[in-house]
Each structure stands twice: as structure tokens, then as C-alpha cells.
Amino acid sequence: MSMTPEQATWFADVAGRIVTNVEQVLLGKTFVIRLAVTAMLSEGHLLLEDVPGTGKTSLARAMAQSVQGSTNRIQFTPDLLPGDITGISVYDQKTQEFDFHRGPIFSNIVLADEINRASPKTQSALLEAMEESAVTVDGVNHRLAAPFMVIATQNPVEQAGTYRLPEAQLDRFLMKASIGYPDHAATVKILETSSAPSSSVPLASVVPAATITEMATLARSVHVDPVIADYVARLVDATRSASEVRLGVSVRGAMGLMRASRVFAALAGRHYVTPDDVKALAVPILAHRLVLDAEAEFDGVSATSVIAQLLVETPPPADRAGS
């Protein structure tokens, strides 16, 4: 059964309250916040990459505070071990058995701060959790909380002390976004209220975690016309044949774009997806999955510019895909 217009209106209202709540902390960045909410309601994970001091951690913290569920923050450092994330089994001499001590990954929203400052071995501890919402320790599978979302922040890889995330882990992030500096008006407002650090700004939770799960399930019923699916498939195919690209978008990426487009449409109060929904999400969902040819990188080509060019070259459906 497809989502009804009434359900779409309710969806947009609840999601709008989350966006408004987070905007109290991150001024003038409505689109980035909408992307973060879209990722959460798509049951995906979000990677925030930007230079220090642009509000990456503040956004992640505000998202966690807006949902009435469990949250944990992991500060990634070079000496962090995989067991510090997933948990470890400790031998109890009294019972003569191993007891599993859960790590911070067992939470509804996990803030992985400066994820690329930890070693690749430690970063890989998140792979199973992000893909299957479970972790395996000493051969025992442990299910994670529902909903479960990783919001990771990272500094650009050119900065000292950072490790590049492997392609397999990048592919598990539904979106990669950058916050950027605020505009002049937002900067003035931030300075006027800068007597207290942003971390001390109290945010009330807007929705319980159960509502997030309900909304994610409801979003799957947003109508997608076959011409929209064809449009997404053509975009993905174009990334695999582009001359500047060595490795194109995976099937996981194509499915993520479809899933997020449904949520993005519902955020706008619509019960159907349009080509504009796909276009708005193409760069944040597809660009970080591309592996560019070495010569193209040397020439200054970026994954973002490749996706932008493919959006121009790939014609969208001529008719509106409503229902």
C-alpha cells in the first residue's frame, strides 16, 4: 500500500520539527540538516567531512539529542582498538565463564568523532555494524539497537594524522556531506550568542526512537514510478562508464539513492518521488563512492564535479512521476 497524502503531511511535520530543533545549534544550514534527517529516516549512516570548527560535531550531537533514545560518542584516536568500539569478553573467575561487556556501538545514535584519526584496523570494526546492525565478538553475534545510525565526522585527508577511509567503509555511508562556513548573517548571530559554548546549549528531544523506526517503515511506501527507477539506473550506469572514473557506484549506492529519495519526497510532504528528489541527493549519496582515475585526480577532477556533469548529461524523465 502506498503512502497517502495525509501520511505524507504527518511525516513532513514530524521531520520538520527535528530540523527546526537542530537549527537552534547549527544556524543557516537547513539543507545540510535536512540531509542528516533524510539519512536517519532512510536507516542509513552519515559522514560529515569538513575543516575543523565548522560544526560537524555540533550537528551530530544535536541530531542525537533530538531523538529520545540512547546515544554514545566515540572519540577516534590512533591508539583506539576495535574492542573499544564493539566491546570485549571478560573472564569472570566466580562463574568461570566469559561475560560480554558491550561497547559504545550499542546505542541508537553513535557519534564517531574524527573517524579518520584511528587506524584502518579500528575503522573496520564498524563494517559489520553499519551493514548488518550487529557485531560478532568471539564468534557470538550481538544485535544492535533499533533504530541504529552512525554519524561520523572526519577532517580532510590532507591534514596531518589522518587515515583515508577504505572504499568498503565509504560505501556503507549512505551520505557524505560538508557543512561549510556560515554566511555573514548567520556568523553575526553566532557571535551575538557566543557567550556559552555550543556544547552547553540544551536541546529537548523531539521524537522517541520508536517514531523514527515507524517513519522509516512508512517511507518505504512512498510511490516510485518506473521512470524514476530507470533514471536512477541510468545515472548509476553513467558513473561506471565515465572516462574519469576507475570504480563507479555500487548496487548498494543505487539502492541507497532510491531509499533516500523516498524519504526526501516525504520530507517535502509528497507521497511520490520526482526527478528533483533524485537530483538533490545525487551528489551527497553518489560522489563519495566513486574512485577516480589517477590521471583525472592529477588534473584536479573531483567526484562531485563528475556527478554534477553526469546529471547534466543524463536526461530526467519528461513527465512528473506522481500518482
What does this structure look like?
This protein has 323 residues and is α/β, with parallel strands linked by helices. It folds into two domains: 11-79 and 107-193 and 206-219, 3-Layer(aba) Sandwich (Rossmann fold); 222-317, Orthogonal Bundle (Helicase, Ruva Protein, domain 3). The chain has 14 helices and 13 strands. The protein has helices spanning 5-23, 30-41, 56-66, 82-86, 120-123, 127-132, 167-170, 184-192, 209-219, 226-241, 251-267, 275-286, 294-298, 303-313; strands spanning 46-49, 67-68, 71-75, 87-92, 97-102, 109-113, 134-137, 140-143, 149-154, 175-177, 207-208, 245-247, 291-292. Strands 3-6-9-1-10 form a five-stranded parallel sheet. Helix 1 packs across helix 2 (30-41), helix 10 (226-241) packs across helix 11 (251-267) and helix 12 (275-286) runs antiparallel to helix 14. The model has no long low-confidence stretch (mean pLDDT 88).
